[in-house]
Structure formats: structure tokens, C-alpha cells
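Researcher: I've got a protein sequence and the SMILES for nicotinamide-adenine-dinucleotide. Could you write out the 3D structure of the bound complex as C-alpha cells? I'd like something to compare against our soaking experiments later this week.
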Amino acid sequence: MTSEIRILMCAPDHYDVDYVINPWMEGNVHKSSRDRAVEQWQGLFQVLKDRAIVELVKPEKGVPDMVFTANAGLVLGKEVVLSRFFHKERQGEEPFFKQWFADQGFTVHELPKDLPFEGAGDALLDREGRWLWAGYGFRSELDSHPYLAKWLDIEVLSLRLMDERFYHLDTCFCPLANGYLLYYPPAFDSYSNRLIEMRVPEAKRIPISEPDALNFACNTVNIGTVVVMNKASDELKRRLSAAGFDVVETPLTEFLKAGGAAKCLTLRTTEPVLADIHASGTVESRIVRMEGHLLDAGLINQALDLIVEGGGSFQVLNFNLGEQRQSTSSAEVKVTAPSHDVMEAIMSQLIDLGALPRMDEQCDIIWEPVIQDGVAPDDFYVSTIYPTEVRVSGEWVQVQKQRMDGAIAVDMTGNPTAACRLLRDLKVGDRVIVGVEGIRTVRKPESRDTRSQEFSFMGAGVSSERRVELVVEQIAWEMRQIRDHGGKVVVTAGPVVIHTGGGEHLSHLVREGYVQALLGGNAIAVHDMEQSMLGTSLGMDMKRGVSVRGGHRHHLKVINIVRRYGSIAKAVEAGVVTSGVMYECVKNNIPFSLAGSIRDDGPLPDTEMDLIKAQEAYSRLIEGADLILMLSSMLHSIGVGNMTPAGVKMVCVDINPAVVTKLSDRGSVESVGVVTDVGLFLSLLIQQLDRLTYPYQVA
Ligand SMILES: NC(=O)c1ccc[n+]([C@@H]2O[C@H](COP(=O)([O-])OP(=O)(O)OC[C@H]3O[C@@H](n4cnc5c(N)ncnc54)[C@H](O)[C@@H]3O)[C@@H](O)[C@H]2O)c1
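Model: Sure. Here is the predicted complex with nicotinamide-adenine-dinucleotide in place.
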């Protein structure tokens, strides 16, 4: 017997599966055998009694899980942090354990109410005493970890549990003597796995298989070189033996029915304090404010989900629900993350959702200078499509040239200004915002009412014919409004428009003043002019729908002719191109930009093969757009989508739902997708526009 080691146990006099608070209990209510449970508990007791002093706490009626003493609290030296159980079914155990600890002379620390923490089930000391591993995700809150660090004066490493079968840290993680670690990696998120790998060298990590994990092999009591557990596979025994451990198996199947085994049935009450080990914790908390139609627009759910998915935890401090349908709600949410990096990643996503720091926590941006042309500082804030403001010297400044995937550069000479800048445009000395301090995005409140208007019903997805008609009706109405108010519609189109017979309809739109700029590639222009000059598109007769003998040469002939004239405009002026989309653009002074690609034949003299210049031309033409119609070009549509700030309506038409989803899923109501044939779409659009122009002539 090792006299220094003391272990607390509780006899299973009242043990049973009385309720379901974990997946193990499902289907096992009142299915455990008391006699077998007593026998198995005695088996464990005997094994431990030979190696440690086992103390007993009196079992109490009505709290059957009291047998799992690991959840009484967390002990270090003579300090104990008492458990605050997550489920009310176990909260009745708290006073009995508190009394026992007090009777033994421990200083008992109690967490605030509503801050769950389940003791040594979720907090395991490194066996060398260097730090405390603390779990969260199911039963214990991340917010409890700073208390552990403070009261026990020890470094706390937070690990996030992901698999509800392994709801407590001690069901999937077991620090062993000599720096070894027995654990089941899939039970943790990737951040936690990284943290584990950083702290425990590979040679000391013993990852176990799922069958071993399901036999609760991690729920092990380690005393010196002995490991006591329910069951281990031969492979695991071999691995443990190679690491110098003797495996003692003692069946605990009756307790597995409640989700516990050897470790859960014990609490080590002699955990030595190391003099030179002191508190340090990386857990960070911040309070953010959210305002808007938080419920209608699903903003609060999105925010809470992304906090949890990002590896943090939250506490809603207050929530003021708007009284009327149209009034906005507000909420204050405390966000806690296990480290600064995780906090920054969560915060940058919350900022995109419009979250603001609380008034008293607002601070200015942090910037770093650019030290190499075209390269931002490591931690630069990546801009989004949403209107953004940044706080410089206490004032909120609107960011100019808002776009996605840029850096934000600030100019502090005179009145501070800020603008989105592409990486390639950064110059040495530019001041680029890093981190997430002092940044907020301005989200237009989107209520259910707003969503039900105009564009809202056209969410992405495969559209039935009737649905497409309805969508087109709305788009036609919108385009008509924009034209009548002198607004701007930009069309970006791929060659499929011409192949599907949509060329004449797009020409019509340009001629009738519905298009103020055209963006595309080499192909749409070539196919369009091929149709005008030779009646084919990539060698296909567009009237008869059949290939023309030798038609494949048409494509290059057209390119050659236009090259001879020097530009599309000159070919139009010379009377070589007499109809089509490009013809209408030239004749109606509609600016166009053709961006080159690696697929391009020729190219046409107008095709800009310098992609940086092409991007600049696109972005100039997009400026001030009210609506962008994206017609069957994944390449150009996605390129345009990335340059376009929120607030610009976008309609993406493509036969492939994935392209439509990518473009319409920008989180703003303004972008919608139509999954259909682009030729059909354009023909319906023209019909609808005609109907608006001549309402009485169309049946
Ligand atoms: N000979 C040439 O010079 C040549 C030929 C072809 C493409 N290109 C160039 O390659 C680049 C990419 O070309 P892209 O835009 O055609 O290709 P892309 O793959 O980017 O886009 C084509 C899109 O059209 C969609 N689509 C296909 N059939 C459709 C239909 N019936 N209705 C609606 N959508 C439909 C597809 O799902 C796809 O998303 C462009 O720059 C283009 O100019 C050059």
C-alpha cells in the first residue's frame, strides 16, 4: 500500500440508472443489476485498497450517481473546487460532497451559480503536476477555467470535447505517470489535439482505438506504474506494457450503463502542490453587443453557433426582445475562448455578423506597417463585403472601397481615412489593421418583412419552371425600376449565353438601355461575333442547331478578322460586325471589359491578358452598380462577386446549383440565385420586360 495516496469512493448502495443524461444511459434505465454493480465495485475497491488508502463518503438516497466520486470536485493540495453539476438530476449531490470536503479540512471553493463544472471528471492534473488539463463542451463551461487557475494557482489548458459519448474529459483522456498520456484523439477538436501534441511528445502519447475508448480504457486509475481499468485490447495492453505500465483489468460493465468506469468511481484527494508551478491561463473573455432583427434574421443563432463551432463558449448576459414586429432586439453576449488565437478567429466572424464591442470595451484599431511591397503583416484583418467602420483616435471612420478579401489600410495624416486594399497594392510604410480591435461592420437590419420582399423568395436551389417565371418577373420589375431611375445594371456573361440562343435577348437588353456595362471573357465576344458574321457559334448553326462542315474554323476566322481591324469597335464601324451583343455595346456606348484567361484563342485585341489590369477594369465598371446580372460564367461571376460590396443586388443564373449557391450564399438578402438554362432565362426576361412596357398587348 502506498500510504501517501488517498482515494475517495462511494459504495453503490443506491446506484441505478434512474434517468438519462448521457448517451450511455439511453435504453438502460433500471436495467443495471444492483448485485452485479456491488460485486464489480467491490472488485475495484479491493484492487485499489492494496495500493492506496480508500476513503468512503456515505451514499445518499435519491442521488444514484453519487457513486461517481470523480465528480465531487477538483482537489489540489488542501483546496477543492466543488462541482456545480450541469444537470439538475445530479445537483443534489453537491451539499453531501461539500460537507465531506469541509469535514476533512479542505478549503472549499464554490463557483457562481449557473456556471457548470464537474470536478475531476472534467479536470485532470498532469501526473507530474505541471499543469491542469480542463475539458469543456458538454458538462463544464469554459468560463469556469479561469476560476480553477485562480483558486488552484496552476496553469490550465482547455480542451474542447466534441463527441457526446465522451462527455467528460476523463472518459477519453488520462494523463499517466512519467509524462505518458492515454487518450482518444477523435473526441477532441483540432485546436485541442494541437495543444495536446504541443505539450506531450509523440513518444509519450498513447492514442487508443474506438473499441478501447468505448470500453472506457481512458477511464483509468493510475497509481505509480499500475493502470486499473474496465478492459483493454491486447494491442493496448502491449502498448502500455512497452511504456512500463502493468494493466489491471476489473470489470465495471454495470457502471458503463451510466457512462462511467474506474476513474469515474474514484477521486484522488491527495494531489501534491508543486511550489514552483503557478497560475497561468490562456482563456480569454469578451463581451459583444448585437442589435437588429436578431431572431427574425436568425442572427443570434448564427452568432451563438459560430462561437461554439469556433471552439469558444458563450453566456447570453441579456436579451431585449423588440416589442413590435418591426422593432429591433439587442443582446449582450459574453464570449469565452481557450486562447487568444481562437478568440480572434471567433471575433472576426462575429464582426462580420455585425457584433460590436460593448461601449466600455471599445478600443482603437491596432495597425502594423507594411515592410515589404505587396505583403501584409501576418495577422492582418481580412475585409468582407459588408460596410465596415474602424475606430481611429476614438472616432469611427468609414472604410472606403469596401470589398472582400482585402486588407484595410489607414491613413492618419490629417483626418484619418481607411480603405480596403488588395495585397498586391500594399506599399512599404502603409499602415495595415491587424487583429480585430476597433473594427465593426454595419449590417442593414433584415427582418422577416424585408426578407419577404422582392428578392427574398428566390433563394438558391433548383428552380421549377413556374418558380423561374416568378423570379424573372421580379428581376424584370427591378431592372425596369433601375433603368427608369437612371441606375446601373452590370451584366457578366459567359459564352453559354450565345450557345443557348440567349445572344439575341442580351442584345435586346443592351439596345433597350437595361445594361450599363458588360463584363466577360474572350469567348463570349468571339462567339457572339461569329454568330453575327457567320451564323454559327463555335461552328454550330444557331438556327438549325447542327454543326456546319468546317465550322470549327469559324471561331478563329472571326478572331483573325477582328484582329485585322484592331478592335471590336473598329470592326463594328467598318460594318463587319452588324448585330449581336458586342455590336449593341459599341453602338450604344456601353462600356465592356473582356478579361483574358488561359483558355483564350487569339485573343481578340480587346481581351486584356494582363489580369491585374483586367481586374482593375472590372472593378471600375462595377462601381456604383445597383444590380449585377451574372449569366453562366463561373469564372467571371465569382471574380465579380469577390469585388462587389454588400448592398449591390446580385442575380446569378447558372445550370449548376453549386455555382449559384456559392454566389448567392453571401449572407445578404441582396444576392439570389436562379438555377436554370440561361437561354430560357433571358427569353423569359425579355417577355416580362415587354409585358411591363406594353401591358395590354400581352395575354
Ligand atoms: N476559345 C476561347 O477563347 C474560349 C472558349 C471557352 C472559354 N474561354 C474562356 O474561358 C473562361 C471561362 O469560360 P466560361 O465562363 O465559359 O466557363 P466557366 O466554367 O467559368 O462557366 C461556365 C458556366 O456555365 C454554366 N452553364 C453551362 N451550361 C449552362 C446553361 N445551359 N445554362 C446556364 N448555365 C450553364 C456552367 O455550369 C458553368 O458554371 C472565360 O474567360 C472564357 O472567355 C475561352
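Model: Residues 494-496, 500, 521-523, 526, 597, 599-601, 632-636, 654-656, 659, 677-678 surround nicotinamide-adenine-dinucleotide (CB under 6 Å). DSSP finds 22 helices and 37 strands in the chain.
Researcher: Great, I'll pass this along to the crystallography team.
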